[in-house]
Structures are given as C-alpha cells and as structure tokens.
C-alpha cells in the first residue's frame, strides 16, 4: 500500500541521519587534536617561540587567610588565581564569543609554569573535579584560572609583640622560563586584588596592601615575578585580658602587704611568695606559645617588669624586718650598757640616796634606799644605815624626786620603742605611694613606646 511504503522510507531516512550524528560526535575529540596538529601547535613550546617574551597578566581573589603562626612564622592562604596571555595559534574566526572549555584541557595546552617561591606547602583543589578554568577568546587570548591553597612563609618582627604589625607577601614566579621568555605583571595594579575587604581574621586586621612587579636573580639567570604585599595589624584585646590585666592585678596584690602590720610575719611572707610564684607561672605560660627568638619582645619586657615589682615588694618586707631587728638589738645593747655603767658609778660614788653622773647622760636613773640596800656586796646599805638621822631628814624629799625620775624613765623607754616602730613603718609608708607611682610611670612609658597610633592597635 502507498502509505506503508512512505512510512518505511521515513524510518530509513531517520536511521541514516542518526548514524551520521553519532559518527560525527564520535570523531569530535580526534578532530580537536587534529586541528591543533594541523596548525603546528606544540604544547611544549611557548607562544611566539624564538620571538618576544610572552606577557602574562595576573589577577587574584583572596578567599581566606588563616592559621597565622608566630611560632612557625607562616600563614595559610586560599586564592583564586587567574592568568591571561595570548596564543595566536589558538585564534579562531566565525564567532565573537569566548569559549569556556573543560579544565582538563589544560593538559593539552601550553600554560605558564607558575609557582609560589615563598610557599612551604601548596596544592590545587580537586573536589569534585580539578578546580581549573580555561576560557578561549577569538583572538587567541586565554584565561586560565585555578584555586590554590598555600602555606606561605612570613618573616615576622616580633619586637613589639603583641602590639605589632607584620608585613607578609605572596609571590608568583616562573620556575623555568627566564625574563627573555616570559614576563609576569599584575593586570590592573592594586585593582587586580579582590576580596581583601571581606576577609575576617581572628587576631588580625588587614591593613594596607600593594602589588609589585619584579624580578628574581638566581644562579641560573633572571626570572620574572609578581608579589602581593599586605600588612597584618594584631588586635591586642586577647592579650589584654589574657596577660596584661592578670599581671597588673598580681602587682597590685603584692602591695597589700604594705598595709599589713610588720609584726605579722606569716601573712606578709605568704603573700609575697604567692604573688612571685604566680607571676612566674604566668610568664612561663606566655612564653610557651612564642618562638625561641634571640631578642626581647614587648610582652617579655612587661612580664619581667611586673615580676620585678612583685619581687621588690617581697624584698621590701625583708628590709623592714631586718631594720626592725637591728634597731631592737641596738636598743637592747645600749640599754644594757647604760644600766651597767650606772651601776658601776653608783657603787663608786654614793652620796645620800642618789647616784648622779653629770658627765654621762645615760646614767640618769635615781635609786631609793631599797635600791641601795639591794646592792650585791651590801656595802652601800651599811653606809646608808650609818647615817640614820640624815636619812630621816631627807627621805620625804628624795622619795618625791625618785618617783618623778621613774616616771620620766618609763616615758623615755616607751618613746624609744615608738621611735623604732616609727622608723620601720616609715618604709611601708613610703612604699605605699612609691610603688604605685613607679608602676604608673612604667605603664605610661611602655605603652607610649610600643603602641602604633597610626594603626590603632586596640581596634
């Protein structure tokens, strides 16, 4: 029937068309390779081989900066690096649009041998596929992008730590091509860097940044490179609460002993030793997280000075106790010598009821009949009793004088003890305002010297 023959013809035509499409698709990949070969393309030779150097422009988006380590002096950075160059061998006509190709095609094309010279470790991300981008433009321009994570070296100057600012760099350089073959440069200067304003760091704040086009010289020749330089300003709030405030409180605590009685030896010694040992522990904990460097850091200056203040408070009480003991010993010796000298004078020069030494003021003690009778050898008592009539006439008068001298002697003894205590407590009294004043002057000079007012280290 006519309609059946028409259906069979249409089915045959459809099968022929499908076979042709499948054959064309199966020959697509070989066709691309044959196109490169037919144009004389060799991925092992750079564009314009034997001619002027290839100009490679760069731009970069910073994804993150983290794990900034003062101990290892490095940081970890993740970037999207984009490289632009032109290869006339890949120019095509018939379209004004660029072609986005599979990143794995980079294995079949010439690409710059870029590496990071100051990287300790680096790798390309491969999840879920290799994070690469290739875009081909009609004039032969190529955009080659990749996602890189690198642990880069950063030489840090920790003299002002933790109120410091660090200048770190990230460089890109050709590994094998010299300046006669390839030249690197940033595509638009500082505008080639993206994502800096959106970065969030834990202890740092990104400051000014700059890009540099340069050249590195090695034994094998000169190589073109580019660098991204940026400032990291450390935020000191963590260290204020972790180190500075505890140190200040320990120093202030050591001053409490100046208001404690000097005779309370256990209280003042225990307080002084406790503050010194606690300060030592705080210093050890702070230094455990720092690199072993040969110069003094700002935090070392502060902690050591606080330790010296707490130690000086302990030594101050040692001085108080020593001076008190020396004063008491001198007073006891002087008192004993005066009593011995007066007793000797009394035995030699007894007139009436009194022993009077006009030349020696130390011998100012008056004795009654009872004192004379209690002499060791008894001779003085016998002399006194032999003159009974004279004794009776003067007894009432002499007893009044003797009582007054006794009161005067008691007052003098008490005043001498008060003088010793006043001399000792004067050290504590001067320390009560001397220590805080010195510590305040130290803090003012310290923070004025180490802070950077241009960057605002507290913000």
TrEMBL record:
Domain Neurotransmitter-gated ion-channel ligand-binding per the UniProt entry, residue ranges: 38-235
GO BP field: chloride transmembrane transport; synaptic transmission, GABAergic
Molecular function in Gene Ontology: GABA-A receptor activity; GABA-gated chloride ion channel activity
Primary localisation category: membrane
InterPro entries the UniProt entry points to: GABAA/Glycine_rcpt (IPR006028), GABAAb_rcpt (IPR002289), Neur_chan_lig-bd (IPR006202), Neur_chan_lig-bd_sf (IPR036734), Neur_channel (IPR006201), Neuro-gated_channel_TM_sf (IPR036719), Neuro_actylchol_rec (IPR038050), Neurotrans-gated_channel_TM (IPR006029)
Reaction(s) catalysed by this chain's protein: chloride(in) = chloride(out)
Subcellular location: Apical cell membrane; Postsynaptic cell membrane
Record-annotated membrane-spanning stretches: 236-262, 269-289, 301-320
Signal peptide residue numbers: 1-28
Annotated ranges, domain Neurotransmitter-gated ion-channel transmembrane: 243-447
Topology within the bilayer: Multi-pass membrane protein
Superkingdom, taxonomy of origin: Eukaryota
UniProtKB keywords: Cell membrane, Chloride, Chloride channel, Disulfide bond, Glycoprotein, Ion channel, Ion transport, Ligand-gated ion channel, Membrane, Postsynaptic cell membrane, Receptor, Signal, Synapse, Transmembrane, Transmembrane helix, Transport
Cellular component terms (Gene Ontology): apical plasma membrane; chloride channel complex; GABA-A receptor complex; postsynaptic membrane
PANTHER family found in the cross-reference section: NEUROTRANSMITTER GATED ION CHANNEL
Complex and partners: Heteropentamer, formed by a combination of alpha (GABRA1-6), beta (GABRB1-3), gamma (GABRG1-3), delta (GABRD), epsilon (GABRE), rho (GABRR1-3), pi (GABRP) and theta (GABRQ) chains, each subunit exhibiting distinct physiological and pharmacological properties.
Family statement drawn from the similarity comment of this UniProt entry: Belongs to the ligand-gated ion channel (TC 1.A.9) family. Gamma-aminobutyric acid receptor (TC 1.A.9.5) subfamily. GABRP sub-subfamily.
Function in brief: Pi subunit of the heteropentameric ligand-gated chloride channel gated by gamma-aminobutyric acid (GABA). GABA-gated chloride channels, also named GABA(A) receptors (GABAAR), consist of five subunits arranged around a central pore and contain GABA active binding site(s) located at the alpha and beta subunit interfaces. When activated by GABA, GABAARs selectively allow the flow of chloride anions across the cell membrane down their electrochemical gradient. Pi-containing GABAARs are mostly located in peripheral tissues.
UniProt name for this protein: Gamma-aminobutyric acid receptor subunit pi
């Amino acid at each position: 029937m006519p309609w059946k023959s028409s259906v069979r013809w249409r089915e045959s035509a459809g099968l022929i068309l499908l076979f042709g499409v499948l054959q064309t698709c199966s020959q697509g990949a070989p066709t691309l390779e044959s196109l490169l070969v037919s144009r004389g393309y060799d991925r092992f030779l750079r564009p314009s081989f034997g001619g002027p150097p290839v100009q490679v422009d760069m731009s970069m988006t910073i994804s993150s900066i983290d794990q900034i380590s003062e101990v290892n002096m490095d940081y970890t950075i993740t970037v999207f690096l984009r490289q632009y160059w032109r290869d006339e061998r890949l120019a095509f006509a018939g379209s004004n649009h660029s072609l986005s190709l599979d990143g794995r095609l980079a294995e079949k094309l010439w690409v710059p041998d870029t590496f990071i010279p100051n990287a300790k470790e680096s790798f390309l991300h491969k999840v879920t596929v290799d994070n690469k981008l290739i875009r081909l433009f009609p004039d032969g321009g190529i955009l080659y992008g990749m996602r890189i994570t690198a642990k880069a070296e950063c030489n840090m100057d920790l003299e002002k730590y933790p109120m410091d600012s660090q200048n770190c760099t990230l460089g890109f350089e050709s590994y094998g091509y010299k300046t006669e073959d390839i030249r690197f440069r940033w595509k638009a200067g500082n505008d080639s860097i993206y994502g800096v304003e959106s970065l969030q760091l834990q202890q740092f704040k990104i400051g000014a940044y700059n890009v540099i086009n340069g050249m590195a010289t090695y034994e094998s020749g000169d190589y073109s490179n580019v660098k991204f330089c940026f400032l990291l300003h450390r935020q000191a709030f963590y260290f204020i609460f972790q180190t500075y405030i505890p140190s200040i409180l320990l120093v202030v605590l050591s001053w409490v002993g100046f208001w404690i009685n000097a005779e309370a030896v256990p209280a003042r010694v225990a307080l002084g030793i406790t503050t010194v040992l606690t300060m030592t522990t705080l210093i050890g904990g702070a230094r455990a997280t720092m690199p072993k460097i040969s110069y003094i850091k700002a935090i070392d200056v502060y902690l050591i000075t606080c330790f010296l203040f707490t130690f000086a408070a302990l030594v101050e009480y040692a001085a108080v106790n020593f001076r008190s003991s020396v004063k008491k010993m001198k007073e006891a010796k002087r008192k004993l010598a005066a009593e011995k000298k007066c007793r000797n004078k009394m035995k030699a020069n007894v007139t009436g009821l009194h022993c009077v030494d006009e030349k020696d003021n130390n011998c100012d003690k008056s004795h009654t009949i009872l004192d004379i009778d209690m002499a060791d050898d008894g001779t003085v008592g016998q002399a006194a009793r032999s003159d009974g009539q004279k004794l009776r006439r003067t007894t009432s008068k002499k007893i009044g004088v003797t009582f007054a001298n006794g009161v005067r002697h008691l007052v003098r003894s008490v005043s001498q003890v008060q003088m010793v205590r006043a001399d000792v407590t004067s050290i504590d009294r001067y320390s009560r305002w001397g220590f805080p004043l010195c510590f305040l002057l130290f803090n003012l000079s310290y923070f004025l010297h180490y802070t950077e007012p241009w960057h605002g280290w507290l913000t």
